[in-house]
């Protein structure tokens, strides 16, 4: 496995990796969800690159950039064991030099939900992903469906900018009790960890009811009540169009129930199809 930290080194690897390259962008603190992305990339018999970069541009002033977990040695060991061919480890000075004057703002699917709760977040996501695509030059990039809105924002950016990258979503990896894998789960106390699966359970129940013809408003309200009763504070819980992320009042085509809820110091994200 190649470990690369400079653009010069990265460019020297292009001919060795070949044109059919899969990229898994990460912020490190890797778990089974990330490794599922590596596995999906490897399944195509292509070379696989992963990036590790905790992106300051997608964190707000009061968010947990400094606290975000970092474990480079552990991450590299997991990537090597998973069959990764290259790890790209840029630093902040390389990604955001002092003279840089360009960011990418995506409208449409970025505007509500996470976009409203975390102003500037998706500008940070789109900008860093575009930079990674330009640096690594993958043919395919793999993203987890846990961050459903993020996947749609990146798809919109790739389509609008005519970038030659296929976006491959990979299903959410969950613990046996249903909790979606997340690097931030390590910050849950034992009591919070026991309560956390209630979010996924509530979303599944709401999806079942809506698919069965129950009123959307009532089903979402019952789900929000269940989440609140488990000790969480929902930022939002909504039925949305699967691609545009616009809210839906009735089910008429493929949709998603998405939610973000605060549990202690951790903000849990999850979604389910309807």
Describe the structure.
The longest helix is centred in the middle third of the chain and has 16 residues. Helix content is 38%, strand content 20%. The radius of gyration is 19 Å and the shape is globular. The chain has 10 helices and 9 strands. Strand 3, helix 3 and strand 4 form a beta-alpha-beta unit. The chain folds into 2 domains: 169 residues, Rossmann fold (3-Layer(aba) Sandwich), CATH 3.40.50; 91 residues, Pantoate--beta-alanine Ligase, Chain: A,domain 2 (2-Layer Sandwich), CATH 3.30.1300. Strands 1-4-3-2-5-6 form a 6-stranded parallel β-sheet, with helices on both faces. The chain has a 3-stranded antiparallel β-sheet with strand order 7-8-9, covered by helices on one side. Helix 6 crosses helix 7 and helix 9 runs antiparallel to helix 10.
Brief digest:
This protein has 274 residues and is α/β, with parallel strands linked by helices.
């Amino acid at each position: 496995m190649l470990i690369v930290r400079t653009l010069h080194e990265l460019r020297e690897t292009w001919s060795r990796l070949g044109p059919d390259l899969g990229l898994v962008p990460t912020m490190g603190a890797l778990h089974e969800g990330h490794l599922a992305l590596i596995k999906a990339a490897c399944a195509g018999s292509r070379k696989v690159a992963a990036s590790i970069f905790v992106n300051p541009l997608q964190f707000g002033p009061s968010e947990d950039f400094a606290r975000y977990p970092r474990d480079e040695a552990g991450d590299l060991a997991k990537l090597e064991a998973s069959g990764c061919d290259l790890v790209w480890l840029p630093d902040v000075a390389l990604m955001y030099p002092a003279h840089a004057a360009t960011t990418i703002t995506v409208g449409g699917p970025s505007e509500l939900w996470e976009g409203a709760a975390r102003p500037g977040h998706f500008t940070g996501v789109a900008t860093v992903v575009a930079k990674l695509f330009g640096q690594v030059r993958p043919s395919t990039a793999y993203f987890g469906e846990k961050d459903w809105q993020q996947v749609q924002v990146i798809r919109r950016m790739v389509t609008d900018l005519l970038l030659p990258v296929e976006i491959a979503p990979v299903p959410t990896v969950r613990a046996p009790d249903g909790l979606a894998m997340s690097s931030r789960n390590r910050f849950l106390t034992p009591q919070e960890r026991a309560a956390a699966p209630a979010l996924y359970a509530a979303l599944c129940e709401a999806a079942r009811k809506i698919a069965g013809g129950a009123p959307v408003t009532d089903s979402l309200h019952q789900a929000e009540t269940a989440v609140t009763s488990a000790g969480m504070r929902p930022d939002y819980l909504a039925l949305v169009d699967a691609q545009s992320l616009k809210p839906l009042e009735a089910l008429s085509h493929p949709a998603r129930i998405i939610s973000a809820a605060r549990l202690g110091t951790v903000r849990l994200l999850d979604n389910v199809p309807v």
